[in-house]
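User: Assemble these into one structure.

Assistant: Restating your components, then the assembled model:
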Amino acid sequence: MNWISNLIDNWLNFMSVGENVAFAILAVLIISSSVLMINFTKVVHMVVSLAVVFLSLAGMYVLLEAEFVAFVQVLIYAGAISILMIFGIMMTRHDEQEQPKQPVFQALLLSGSVALFGIIFYAIQSTAFTPSTGFEQGADNTKAIGELLYTQHVIPFELISVLLTVAFIGAIVLAKREEE
Amino acid sequence: MDNILPSYLILGAILFCIGLYGALSKRSAIVVLISIELMLNACNLNFIAFSKYGPVPSLTGQIFSLFNITVAAAEVAVGVAILIALFKNKGTSNVEEMDSMRY
Amino acid sequence: MESTYSQLAWIIPISPLIAFLILLSVGRQLKQYGGYLAVLASLVSFTISVLIFIERTGNEMQNYTWNDWEWLSVDTVTLTMGFEINNLNTLMLLIVSFVSLLVNLYSIGYMKDDDRINVYFSYIALFTFSMLGLVITENIVQLYIFWELVGVCSFLLVGFWYFKPEAKAAAKKAFIVTRIGDVGLFIAILILFWYMPDHSLSFSAISNAFEQKAIEPGIVTLIAILIFIGAMGKSGQFPLHTWLPDAMEGPTPISALIHAATMVAAGVYLVARTFPIFEASATAMTVVAIVGAFTALFAATIGVAQNDIKRVLAYSTVSQLGYMMLALGVGALSAGMFHLFTHAFFKALLFLAAGSVIHAVHKQNMHEMGGLGVKMKITAWTFAIGALALSGIFPFAGFWSKDAILTEALHQNVWYFIVGLTAAFFTAFYMSRLFFLVFAGKSRTDHKGHEPHESPAVMTIPLIVLAVLAIGAGFVFTPFNPWFGEWLTGTAEEHTNWTVIILSNLVGLLGIGLGYLMYIRGTIARDVISSRAPGLSRLVANKYYMDELYQMIIITPLKGLGYVLRLFDYYVIDGAVRLSASSALYVGRLGARMQNGQLQAYGLASLIGIVLLMIIFVGRRFWNVG
């Protein structure tokens, strides 16, 4: 029974920090809603649970002192992309009852995914991360990001803007073409 | 437990694997796209976690995840557009029926 | 003395070769001028042959040999190519180029309505090239190449009207039966190569080696017999004679050129060319003489019962070739070559005249002809001259050559003489039968307003030229003027023997007289033999059942074997091939099924691949540690 008490000790120790409590709550939220997303049969429900995942991730980013990214996450993922998905669902027809794939395929896929997770888990556990004190970004996080974007990362930034334009035009062309 | 980084990474890995499973097992093209978003989010979480707790903490991780979000947005836009065009042409959004590239 | 023209001898075969190439490439555009080109080419060959002949007859001359072209060089053995000019092949050159010239000329008229006339002329040109090449060749390997080439040309020309099934079958038969002989020749060449000092295969080296008896007698006999088998195939000697009558399915000028005057004489020429080998083996000489004598009589008797005008001539050719072989077999080289020389003229004449008849009446059965002598005077007269020459009546060319052979035969063995004489009787008989049936009497068929008339000048001129030669060619070698023999072999071997002269004329006249009585006067009923001895007459009419015999003992078992082999091929070999093909196909299908276009299946495959790779890489750590 020693290892159980050890575990409980560890857990209590972990939970004694407020930040960690928040992490735990968010993590549970993320994992449970993403698993739910996979298991829902109605597509709209999936999108809703996806939005929950996105919002919880935004909370996670806040926890990681990345306020700007959290903000962007809410704006783009929880806002724009979810809405886009809903539009996509509305424009196409969906079978309510999805027939499952072949059992062999399911089994292989499940074991493959679990194995991949196991490998990553093993890799993370066996890596000795140098403990860092944490990165104090201060309140000027957004300003610092803006400065970096326009100095050090200006070329990728511009490229991304071109990419967005191209995707935007391409999306319009693709969706409109058939109507002529 | 003074280092919280592995927890974030494992959370990212879980998210990624769930996304992967969804992307490969679902028949509806929309759901496949959603699952891919999930996988991209798992990456973003890793970037930001490393940006704070990594061996060399820096803002670059956050900037990279910003780019990532942008690209994901573009991808979803184009993906949904292709999907709608395909649906108009073939009357289906089932990925299994999109097999015109077979031998 | 320097031989000026002999150095130019290479032009003789090359000229028709060039004509062949031109006709082959632009024959379609040449239209009716293709024939003139062929005539021109053979005229060039003939001119040079005549010049060489004149040069060589006027003077005592060394043989001219050119063999600087090294064709194959294996270790220390070198095979050369080149040509040699001596008196023997000068004579052959003259005959071949002359007959080919006349046949080309004649064909312009005979083949004028054929669509593929230029193909025909190109084949003749190729044949002329091969035959002339065969004649002047300097070593036996080269001879073999040309030997096969003339066989191919014979095949092509016999099967020229390939839309007729008989022509197709005849072409195949001609090719296959002569091939049997060719194998013999080929084996002989191989043995020669093995046993010759320095592996030299040139004719001069061969004659040196055999004259000095450098090779053991058993081998000599073997080589000689094998060479003779090759000659048998080409020259239609028993038992390989069956192809020659069938080869008459080809155009008639071809029968005149290839199957009477030149190619079939190649066998005789081959024996004459390798005569030192035969001289070194008495056994081989006897074989040659017996086969020749037997063939002469055998074919002559078949000729009596044939109804097709060309087949009679074909059997007569076989018979006359038998005479030549008999002459060579008894050692009379010059008599044999002399008969070849005269026979080329009168047999070509007979064939061309027969062609003229066929051209006029469009049929070949003699019993449906008759009375043509009035309508076709030139043809009838020239044919008569040819027939008399063939029958050996004084003073036509055939008389002198046949007399020379019979004299030599009597000198050697009286049986050869009797056989030869009997054959001469039959020859005279069937020739008179042929002549009287075709030209005398009344027409036995209605020509339906399409009266036969004399052929155009382009066809009759060759006939007249040949008729003159059929009369005059004999005088170069008579008992009183043995110039030809001296020139050819260096020794005069002609013996005057009045008995022979009188007897041979007598049997000739007897044969003609019998034919006259049977077919003109009717004193003797035509069915005098067939009514008394129907078995004998049927036997002869069916050519002694030779074809049936071959069918039974060779073709049927071979076909059976072929059938078994075909089954084996179909089920075992093809089965294996099909098995491998279909297994490849199924593996491919399996692979193709992987490419099902399902993106998620691809995704799963790459996921599993990545997981496996990672396990391998990560696992290595444990194994190294463990």
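Chain A has seven helices and no strands.
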